[in-house]
C-alpha cells in the first residue's frame, strides 16, 4: 500500500479562541502539543517544515482536533493526540507516528523527517 498523503492532528483546537487558549496554556505550562513544537516556532510556522513537506513528495496536511474528518477523529480516539496518519492508495488509513514518537524528536523538523521516513518504510506500520 503506497502512502498518498499524511495528516498530522494537533492536540489543540483551531480558530481564534482555540489557538488563544493553546498559546496561553502553553505559556503557563498547562498545555502541550509535540506536533505543534515540530511545525511551529513560538511566532510562526517553521520554514524548515515547509521545505521538509516539499521533499516528501506527497501532501502533508495538519489539522486541529476540531477540524478532523470522521475517520481521523476515530483514529484519534484510539491513538491519542497528537498523531500523524498515513492515507494509503487503497483508501485505508494507518496511524504512523504517535505522540511519544513525536515527543522524542524534541521539536526538530530534521529528526521528525527521519522518524517519518523510517516509519513509512516499515511494512504494516501502525501505532498502538
TrEMBL record:
<protein>
    <submittedName>
        <fullName>Uncharacterized protein</fullName>
    </submittedName>
</protein>
